[in-house]
Amino acid sequence: TIRRCRGSKASSVVVMQRLQSLVGLFESRNGQASLSEIFDEIYDCKDIRDKSALRMFDRDRKKLENLFAAQGLSIHCAEPRKYVLERGAQSPPISLRLRISGEDVQALAAGMKLSAHFLPIFSGSAERIWEQLKIGIPGEELQEKGDMFARATTVAFPVSRTSKDAFQKVVDAIFEKRVLKISQYKTYGGDEMSFHISPWFIYFKYHSWYLWGKAEEFDRSGPFRISRMRLICPAPSKTYVSPPENIDMKDYVYRDGKPGAQETSYSVRLRIHPPFAVPAMETEWYPGQVIRWEDPRKQTTAICEFYSSGLEDVARWIMRSLDSFEILDPPELREIIEQKIEIYKQRQNTLP
Questions:
Q1: 234: phi > 0 → left, psi -120 to 50 → alpha, else beta; which?
Q2: Which of 160, 187, 175, 165 lies closest to 233 in space, CA to CA?
Q3: Which residues make beta-bridge pairs with 86?
Q4: Of the four listed, 92, 275, 315, 347, which is most buried by Cβ atoms within 10 Å?
Q5: 3-state SS class at 269
Q6: pLDDT, tens digit, for every residue of 153-176?
Q7: Is the pLDDT of residue 7 over 50?
């Protein structure tokens, strides 16, 4: 375990992070690591003959030995291309000293608070880890600053209820690259279905956590809301389908539609009026969007342009501030909005 505290002897945070990773590598392998493992994981180098990486490793090794000489720490070559980390039997946990600022404390406090909000199933863990982290923060003033910032940080954003068991099974399957069988799943339209899925990544959108993956029953990958999953179990007989190389998760997250749906790219052009024009100018709503004032001098209406692989998501966004929008393109988007308005009117007219 490496504890962070004030008073650094390191030349930079980058070096200290590398030393921390080096110790962590040895600890995870019972004190032994091959030169190829060290080069690959610490120095991002595949060639064990690389002289630059070898010099850096030698410097880091000597720096660690100097820092923890009192604990009898040494890293030596036990056999060709294999190194061993040893330290005194009664020595305390290795502690690397890093500087921590008020901004760092605020970031930690806010992070713990936000994680507790967006993952309420882990709120207890977030509170416990913050209390433990405070022990390593030097000075009561910084600790109090962190507590005050945590109390002052809140999010007025709803989060749907998600089973801790379901969430953990999905996360474990992503790490272990294994297929899951979802025996019960309720779609957005209320239909029941079951499927086998190779999970790729999770993300938070609107008010829910979603899993993006490739289901065996569909031709294309797509999103599945975790809170709607029931009876989740591993499917070891199924072959895991890996995501494409260099996958751009943000691009996938902003895709619209249902699992297996055919993708069509739409060019969307909107005119946005007050009162939503100013907030619209302040936010990136879609990747690659171009948003500008229609008249830079008046700054009243904005023109927003972007490409979307679906329109249902865009329509729901527009409906939140419908009185501020004009849909310039595409006509299919206008039709979706008009259909939603018509359905609303029909239902209102049937009220007693």
A1: beta
A2: 165
A3: 74
A4: 315
A5: strand
A6: 777 778 888 888 899 999 999 999
A7: no
DSSP assignment of 155-188, as one string? ---------HHHHHHHHHHHHHT--EEEEEEE-T
Please write the tens of the pLDDT for every residue from 119-149: 888 888 888 877 777 766 666 777 777 778 7
How far, in Å, CA of 136 to CA of 142, rounded?
11
Share of the chain above pLDDT 70, in %: 88
Which burial class, exposed, middle or buried, applies to 229 when counting CB atoms under 10 A from its CB (0-12, 13-18, 19+)?
buried
Rounded average pLDDT over 274-278: 93
Cβ(54)–Cβ(4) below 8 Å: no
What fold is seen in the domain 164-253? SH3 type barrels. (2.30.30)
Write out the two tokens for 248.
Answer: 């751009």
Q: Any idea what the Cα angle at residue 144 is, between residues 140 and 145, rounded to 5°? A: 115
Nearest one of 178, 320, 323 to 237, comparing CA atoms? 178
Residue 258 exposed, middle or buried by CB count within 10 Å (0-12, 13-18, 19+): middle
Place of tokens 């060290």: 38
Tell me the β-bridge partners of 266. Answer: 308
Structure tokens at 245: 């190389």
Q: Where are the alpha helices (DSSP H) in the chain?
A: 13-28, 35-42, 51-67, 102-118, 123-135, 140-152, 164-176, 249-253, 277-281, 312-319, 331-349
Task: Sketch the domain layout of the chain as residue ranges.
Answer: 13-86, 102-152, 164-253, 266-349
Distance CA 278, CA 217 (A): 44
Domain 13-86 has CATH 2.102.30.10: no
Q: Which two tokens stand for residue 83?
A: 């190194």
Q: Cα(87)–Cα(75) distance, rounded to whole angstroms?
A: 9
Torsion angles phi and psi, residue 27, rounded to 5? -60, -35
The string of pLDDT tens digits covering residues 245-258 is 877 777 777 765 55
Tokens read off for 171: 């996360």
